[in-house]
Design a protein that fits this description.
Length: about 80
């Protein structure tokens, strides 16, 4: 079955799918943008990037995610 976007993600460009294994690497790289589920079994996008620095952190998280489950759908991020 194709990976599904997790419902917890804040709507926007970046999101985590249900392939996430809860390793927490994304949180280490982009603390301000990711959050863990109550049982820590998965992480999701809490905040879309507010500036270029945060976007760079998310891109780093994408590059290290072992499950390749942080995605960008190319939708415009609301800059406000
Ligand atoms: S790095 Fe990837 S697999 Fe690990 S918690 Fe984050 S989204 Fe999930």
């Amino acid at each position: 079955m194709a990976a599904q976007k997790l419902e917890d993600n804040t709507p926007g460009k970046y999101y985590v799918t249900d392939d996430c294994n809860g390793c927490g690497l994304c949180f280490a790289y982009a603390l301000q943008n990711f959050m863990y589920a109550g049982d820590s079994s998965y992480y999701y996008v809490l905040e879309q990037p507010a500036d270029q620095r945060e976007e760079d952190d998310i891109l780093k998280a994408i590059s290290v995610c072992p499950m390749d489950c942080i995605k960008s759908d190319g939708e415009l991020v609301n800059p406000s």
